[in-house]
Amino acid sequence: MSIKIDKKEFFYIFVLGMVLFTAFFPNYFLQISVLNYLRAILNIIFSAGVTLYAIIFKRYNSSLIFIIGYILTEIISTFINGGSISSAIYGQGILLLGLCIAVQIAYERNERLFLKTVYGLFYILVLINYLSIIIFPKGLYYDRHELDGICFLLGNYNGFIIYILFALIPGYIYEMKFKQKLTWKYIVFCLLVIATYLQVHSVTSTVGICLIMAYLVVSRFGWPKHILNLKIYVLINILFFFLIVWNGDRPAVIMAFLALVGKNLTFSGRTMIWQNTRNNLVNHRLLGLGYKSDQEMLQEVGGLSSHNIYLDIIYQTGLVGFGWIIGLFLYACSWIRKIDDKNLTDFLSVCVGVFMLMSQFEASSIRFVFFMLTFISIYSKKHSR
User: Which intervals hold domain O-antigen ligase-related (predicted)?
Assistant: First the structure.
């Protein structure tokens, strides 16, 4: 019995898979110089090619306004602060723009294949990462610049959540839309995620993932609608950021929470990095300090990042750049509320809420933020009431 392979589908999956794989290269491979250089070259080629395609054939949507605004802000800030303009453009700008355009073009060309490819790629990465944890419990390598330096295929455990969400969200949509139910494959992935976090003993990450898993279970029996309101998640995150991260206060309720989850008052050493970041921003709050490499961040704040995505964005692009991110976030949320499937609206609300919570403790690459918000806004807009 011969297996027929659709050449167009194979080509679609291969190209999209390569674009995503190079954009979200597993951290372990970044330790290998040859692979790192190859990834950088492929990133620029893919991103420049996709951008030119979009310009020539006019394939772009409203969400690109926020992305272009953010990129221009970062370039201007980098120039004003005497940073590397070429790094801001090639190391960040083109990659962001190319990735978000690629998401739009690929999704519009074939929704089913897009969801299947993204789901499958990140499913495999999370699976191999779990195997790396089992086989190498002390880590594949050690990064002394991380707060907890033990790293696996996808890097430090604080960064796992992004790869997991990129499988959970497209996977849920794909299975409910094209399978009409969550299959054993998706259930196995959920169990894999739980096992991963139990293995690395990450309290914050485990709490976040348990919220998503709890929704998947109890949504079958009904869920209080007010708990799934995005406004509540946004309010909680705003309060946490300004009371704890920005001002450094320690209200009694926060101290009680920290005692409950076994954290100390420094949030595992993050408060010193937050303070260094705030101090450097005193005279640069409007436009920030421009694009920064990992080494520059290490010298200036004491870590490869500020360990808070919101603080990291303000540090490099100021309140203006942060405003562009908020604009894209609100744009995506406005369409989430209009999705014709209430269960999917609730699921995306929970996932976005968990991502916002996790981002308070880790500064994931801005590419992850733009990829997720661009995808959610494009999907939600297409399936709105």
Answer: 190-322
Token pair belonging to 366 = 């801005």
∠216-220-226 over CA atoms, to 5°?
Answer: 75
Q: Is 155 helix (H, G, I), strand (E, B) or coil?
A: strand
**Nearest one of 257, 212, 222, 264 to 239, comparing CA atoms:** 257
Report how far Cα 144 is from the mean position of its chain's Cα atoms: 23
Cα–Cα distance, 304 to 147 (Å, whole number): 10
Q: What are phi and psi of 237, to 5 degrees?
A: -70, -40
| Single pTM value for the model | 0.88
Closest CA to 24 of 88, 117, 99, 136: 99
**Cα–Cα distance between 362 and 358 in angstroms, integer?**
7
Q: Which helix (H) or strand (E) holds 150?
A: strand 150-151
User: Tokens 């690629």 identify what position?
Assistant: 102
Q: How many CB atoms within 10 Å of residue 137? A: 11
pLDDT at 1: 40
- Per-residue pLDDT tens over the stretch 205-234: 777 888 888 888 877 766 655 555 677 778
> In whole angstroms, how large is the CA radius of gyration of the chain?
20
| Distance from the first to the final alpha carbon of the chain | 45
Q: How far apart are CA 365 and CA 27, in angstroms?
A: 12
Domain ranges of the chain: 7-382
Quickly list DSSP for 295-320: HHHHHHHSSSS-SSHHHHHHHHHHHH
Picking from 329, 338, 316, the residue whose alpha carbon sits closest to that of residue 356 is 329
Report helix angle 294-301 to 270-280, nearest 10. 90
Q: Tell me which residue of 174, 140, 170 sits closest to 155, measured CA to CA.
A: 140
147 or 137: which leads in pLDDT: 137
The span from the CA of 151 to the CA of 145, in Å, is: 11
